Each structure stands twice: as structure tokens, then as C-alpha cells.
Amino acid sequence: MTEKVPLIRLTKREDMAKSKVWLIRLLAFLLALVLGGLVFLIAGANPITAYSTMIAGSLGKATGIKQVVKVAVPLLGTALALAPCFAMRFWNIGAEGQITMGAMMASFFALKMVNSMPSPVLLIVMGVSAAVMGALWAGIPAFFKARWGTNETLFTLMMNYIAIGIVGWLQGGPWEGKPGSQIIPMFDERAVLPRVLGVHIGWIIVLVLTFLMYIYMTKTKHGYEIAVLGESENTARYAGMDVRKVVLRTACLSGGIAGLVGFMICSGADQTLYQNVAGGVGFTAITVTWLAQLNPFAMIVISLLLAVLSKGASTIQTTMGVPASISDIITGIILLCMLGCEFFINYRMVFRDHEELPAAPKAEIPGVKAAAGKEAEA
Predict the structure, then answer these.
(1) At what angle do helices 47-59 and 62-87 cross, to 10 degrees?
(2) Are strands 195-196 and 199-200 parallel, antiparallel or unpaired?
(3) For 280, left (φ over 0), alpha (ψ -120 to 50), or beta?
(4) How far, in Å, CA of 191 to CA of 4, rounded?
(5) In angstroms, what is the C-alpha Rg of the chain?
(6) Are residues 141 and 253 in contact, defined by beta-carbon separation less than 8 angstroms?
(7) For the segment 9-41, what is each residue's pLDDT rounded down to a tens digit?
(8) pLDDT tens-digit series, residues 277-331
(9) Pairwise CA distance, residues 169 & 241, whole Å
(10) pLDDT tens digits along 83-123
(11) Residue 314 CB: number of other CB atoms within 10 A?
């Protein structure tokens, strides 16, 4: 008998040279730009002109650079928040809600306690309270996951809508400014983050967080426990780790950083609170985290790239009449190509020869053949 071999099969690659890995990633990025150029052609625009206009609109002037940094700050901060959870294989899709709840708690002190303390103390209290609220919001699904094994993906996703609903109620109710306006008042100057080089100091905070996250993930015992748990929960238990504790601690850390991002958005960028304060950052940051392969320093580059696309999209809309939503399409193409190239980095396709391999002999259990022979003689 012969055994048929599949036409195409996948096999795990051995360790590939880093130079080859980065070459594949570069080619994937260039392919994404080419495919994005086709999108521009379909929209009736010259791809080269469109790309150059996007870059000029984002980086050609000081005001454009400031806007790029302003967009990149929450993206980078949220990506850093998600990194430890994703490394642990805890799929935290609730950063949007954690940002919103952090912003809500910071706004409470900005609106209600602004006359009770000096500005530096007020800002510190706003930041700490936002981080604590974000940690508590992320801790709820983490507790259920650790205690009863619930699905954290759905749990964290649903909590986003609860957080948004709470802020929507505050916006049209207790915290509403002018009756009927459905608008929360702007913060007093004492509750607004100071600016450095024309951008609120959130950009300094996220850069510090980047270095701290790198150290935490690669140089500390907690980072080691996260890595082991991400590889195998059974291995972590065998090594004597308290899996429930690690899950709760990591999720609360993630939510705390996301809550801090909420503080930076409402106090630095928007200077007020509204229902859509997170603005989709919690979902876009998932793209940043995966493209960067959980590397905090790579997240800086990816965040800036997506910020350039976002800012450049508004430029081509006004100058070329091209829809700004094209930037979302290009972002999706980049994500698809970059994730696709990771597949080919880790696996290779093997095509069969047009021959059939002989079937493997069946294993024989000692004693069974002899017994069968005696039974035949009888």
C-alpha cells in the first residue's frame, strides 16, 4: 500500500538569520505601499503624489509634526499597556473602556476639585486616580478569568460599551455644562497638562514608559513569569508560579497604563471629557502591538507611522479630494502584509513530489503476532 502525501504542507522553520527576517519584513512593507498605491489609483489619484502629499502634510511643517506626535502619544501608550497582556496570552480587547474610565476619573478631580489643590498636586492626583481606575476596570475580567476561566476577549470587549455608556450618561446628566448642550465643560487651566516643545508632556511620559516597559518585560522576575505563562500555563504551574496572581497583576498593570493614557488624552489633548474620548485608540493600538512584535521600542516607530498616515489623510482630503478613510484602508493593508510575512518567517511550505510514499508499517504489539499464529494453527 502507498500513503498519499498532501500537495502542500507546512513545516516549522528553524531559526532564521535576523538579517533575512528584517529583509522579509521590509519587502512586506514595500508590498503594502504598492498595494496602497493601487487603492489611490482606484480613487483617481496619483500614488506618488498622494504619498508625497501625506508626508509633506505630516512632517513638512512644525505644526504637522506636533499633530503627529499628539496622535502618536495615546497609540504608543496604549500599545505599551497591551504588551504584557498579549505576551501572557491574555487577550485584553478592553483598552478602549480602560482609557475611558481613566479619563472619567481624572475628569472628576478636574471638574470637582480644581479649587481644592494647587495645579501640580491636582495633576498628580488626576494621573494616579486615572491609573487606579483603569487597573480596577481591567481587574474585573482578569478576576473572572483567573477564578472561573471566563473568556477574557468577550468580557473585556463588552466592558468597553459599559464604560462608554457611563460617560454618555455623565455627559448628558450630572456633569453637563449648559442645560441641553450634552457637553461637559472645558477643564480649568490648572487641570491641563503643561506643554513641552508645543505638545503636552504626555510624549515625555510615554517615552519614559517605553524604557520602563522594556526593563519590566526583559529584566525582571515579573516579566519572566509573564513569558513563561504565555508559553504554557502548565509549565508555569510546574515551576511553582501562582498563575492567578500573575494574571491579575498583569491585567491590572495593563489597565493602569491605559487609564493613564485616558488622563493624558482628556487633560492634554482634549482638555475635556466626552463619550468618545478614547477615539478608537484602544483598537488601533492592537495593530501597533502586533506589528511591533511586543517590542516597546519598535512600538515608537509603528505609532509614528500610523500617526503620519492619520495626519496625512486629512491633508490629501483637503488638497486632492481623496477620502481620508483611505488611510484606514492603507493601515489595514500594512497590517495584513506585516502579519502575513510573520507567517512565512515562522513556517515554510513544502510541495510534494509527484510520487507516493510507501505506507508506514503498522506497529506490532509484542506477543500479539505469536498468539495470532497459534490461533490459526488451532
Answers:
(1) 90
(2) antiparallel
(3) left
(4) 71
(5) 26
(6) no
(7) 778 777 777 788 888 888 988 998 899 889 888
(8) 998 999 989 989 988 889 999 999 999 988 988 888 778 877 887 777 777 788 7
(9) 42
(10) 999 999 999 999 999 999 999 999 999 999 988 899 999 99
(11) 16
34 secondary structure, DSSP code: H
Q: How far apart are CA 130 and CA 102, in angstroms?
A: 4
Question: Which residues, 6+ apart, have CB-to-CB distance to 158 below 8 Å?
Answer: none
Q: From 163, 168, 200, 165, select the one nearest 72 (Cα to Cα).
A: 200
For residues 210 and 299, is the Cβ–Cβ distance under 8 A? yes
C-alpha 234 chain-centroid distance: 26
How is residue 276 annotated by DSSP? T
Helices (H), 43-178: 47-59, 62-87, 95-112, 119-148, 152-171
CA distance 334 to 33: 8
- Bridge partners (DSSP) of residue 2 are 358
Strand 2-3 and strand 199-200: pairing?
unpaired
SS3 state at 242: coil
Quick one: which of 94, 134, 88 has its CA closest to 253? Answer: 134
In eight-state DSSP terms, residue 10 is: E
Q: Rounded to the nearest 5°, which phi and psi values hold at 345?
A: -70, -35
Contact 253, 163 (CB under 8 A): no
- φ and ψ at residue 46, rounded to 5 degrees: -75, 120
Contacts 24+ apart (CB under 8 A), 229-235: 229/88, 229/89, 230/87, 230/88, 230/89
Indicate the burial class of 214 (C-beta count within 10 angstroms; 0-12, 13-18, 19 or more).
Answer: middle
In the chain, helix, strand, coil percent, each to 5?
70, 5, 25
- Count of CB atoms within 10 A of residue 355's CB? 8
Cα–Cα distance list, 34 to 161, 184, 210, 259, 261 (Å): 37, 44, 31, 37, 34
CA distance 33 to 214: 30
Residue 232 phi/psi, 5° resolution?
-165, 120
Strand, helix or coil at 184? Answer: coil
* Burial classification of residue 5, based on how many CB atoms lie within 10 Å of its CB (0-12 exposed, 13-18 middle, 19 or more buried): middle
What does the block give as the cell for 349?
511550505
Q: Backbone phi, then psi, for 377, in 5-degree steps? A: -65, -40
Give the range among 125-139, 189-203, 346-360 with minimum mean pLDDT.
346-360
